[in-house]
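Blackboard transcription, Thursday session:
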Amino acid sequence: MMQYEQLLNQNLLHVKPSGIRKFFDLAEQMENVISLGVGEPDFLTPWHIRQEAVKSLDIGKTRYTANAGLLALRKEICRYAETHFSLKYDYKTEVLVTVGGSEGIDLFLRAVINPGDEIIVPEPSFVCYNPIVSVCGGVPVPLVTTAQNRFKVTAQALKESITPKTKALVLPYPNNPTGAIMERDELEEIAAVLRDSDILVISDEIYANLTYGGKTHVSIATLEGMRERTVVINGFSKTFSMTGWRLGYALGPQPLIRQMTKLHQFAIMSAPTTSQYGAIDALKNGDEDTEQMKSEYDYRRRYIVNAFNQMGLSCFEPEGAFYCFPSIQSTGLSSDEFCEQLLKEKNVAVVPGTAFGESGEGFIRVSYCYSVDHIRTAMNRIREFLGELHHEN
Amino acid sequence: MNEIIKLLDAHPGISLEEMATMLGIPACEVAKSIDTLRSDKIYMGEKAVINWDKLEDGNHVCAFIDVQVQPKLGMGFDEVARKMSQIPAVECCYLMSGGYDISIKMKGKSFQEIALFVARNLSAIEGVLSTTTHFVLKRYKDDGILMDSSEKDDRGNISL
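(Written on the board underneath:)
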């Protein structure tokens, strides 16, 4: 009899599976669900990008690329990062094309963590950081953000989280699940805390192109003294609706990118070639598509936030990504209870805030990657659900 | 592009209040803008997109007719085009560049009905030199909507 528990990586074994797995399984099994639970764009990849990828296959571009990615793609990434976000990197040594932004996060954390190192992870946030940190033998240190401070990392909270063991800060903005962004003055305060330290930053900017209300994304790497300690993660999934293409990139100082590339070289070899050819076209010709999608998301954002506020579920105004994060505390239900009852009684799926950390309790994550008709139907059902809940009480 | 036009184009049937919310402006402002768009003949109304092929009663034939016209002094093609536009069965009437002058889209109950209509009515209009009728055999996309798509949202119910 194999003793798997003894054979497996003990760090991995002790990573807790998500507590809301049961709810996820339930949601996935149910049919005819009106879902607002998906974290990927409803738009298809723009046609011209798909065409360029097909064209690359037609002319036989089917081999591995350079480990760091096609040179032409790395050049385009650098041009795009500079024109859109004022980020300046050398395409030969400071860019790595990865399998989605997720691989970039994994590579960075594996490249920098020694056993016992602490990584500060804001909460609520995307779910991948803590498990990877733990598997690497690091210690995730939650930095709780709240609706009162608009789910932003404050200098004070950061100072309180720093210890002599702190290796890096994860900065996931614009944020999934809250839709919060960090503005320049707020980032300056964070930079002031980090500038004279040896703490690294991994700035997960996968939603950087999706900011609203006239706000534009600022990368912390553009602030004085921050470039040398920051790795920027971005990708094609959200900006160009290319989730299934699995393509992202990391930008950072050569000593960090070199080590990340080494790991990538051994584990992956190179990101998918067809995707890389599509991505070159996305960066060259995709701005108009991104603007159109962003404008549509913005309509839906206003619509959905207004609907939640009107039905008495107060919703902080998200300024980025494509989620809103209304509070359900007024119902007296926990996040899990709310989501499970809503699913069972009205066939509407939303994600409990607790999926993104304990501090997500009292909130639900609602995606607006759906048509207005779909959102309208879901909102009507949630309104009915609340009415019946109120009536029962 | 005007934001209201963009919304009307992308979300037909949307209410004034919804538009106001989505644009972050008062509903009265939206109403005023729409009135202006109507009076300026920019916003001409909304029309449902029907997949007539699905009705399967064989009564919904559609044709495109290329018409060559002798332009009239001082009027060009306008006089003939306006006359054609008055015919209720004519759904669309455009002045075209290229090998013919006017393109007509019309609907009828049968191929024969349309063919006879073209021969007896359209061709008989003064100034019409020739017509070429193309019948629609199958609709794949109408007004930006895929007609024979079996595509479903394959994203599942939940992903983080």
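Lecturer's comment: The mean pLDDT of chain A is 96.
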